[in-house]
Write a structure and sequence with these properties.
By secondary structure, this protein is mainly beta. Helices cover 12% and strands 54% of the residues. The chain is built from 1 helix and 9 strands; from the N terminus they run H-E-E-E-E-E-E-E-E-E. An 8-stranded antiparallel β-barrel has the order 1-2-3-5-6-7-8-9. A hairpin with an 8-residue loop joins strand 1 and strand 2. 20% of the residues are buried.
Length: 128
């Protein structure tokens, strides 16, 4: 019984040691209508991805949304220096997908994307 417990503990510690620093819940910047969301960022195999978990109106009240549970970020690759490249980001307010990059600095995440020469960016705040 003891070897099994040690194996489980070692697996949990190893998993925590390899967690990417961008993992967590992030508050997006408000869109043109003042609405914002919470995006859960984590690993998807060897890349980083993010899913919309909550939606809020301009007053900060949680609201229903068809976008909850939808993938917003995928195929993002860590460069190991706080920068992430090579992925895509979907912008729900414009229903467009952009080639994306991210830059992590403490509890702020600069997210930007471009499609056909049109670029946008936001600064997200870590929730947890």
């Amino acid at each position: 019984m003891k070897p099994i417990a040690l194996a489980i503990a070692a697996t949990l510690v190893a998993g925590a040691a390899f967690a990417d620093p961008v993992q967590g819940i992030w508050k997006t910047q408000p869109d043109d209508n003042g609405n914002f969301g919470h995006v859960e960022i984590g690993t998807c195999g060897a890349t980083i991805c993010g899913v919309i978990r909550k939606a809020f109106d301009s007053s900060g009240s949680e609201r229903p949304s068809d976008n909850i549970g939808k993938r917003m970020i995928w195929d993002m690759q860590s460069r190991g220096d706080g920068s992430y490249r090579g992925g895509k980001i979907w912008a729900p307010d414009r229903a467009r997908t952009y080639n994306s990059r991210m830059m992590l600095s403490g509890d702020q995440l600069e997210v930007s994307g471009c499609v056909l020469g049109v670029c946008r960016g936001q600064t997200w705040q870590r929730v947890r």
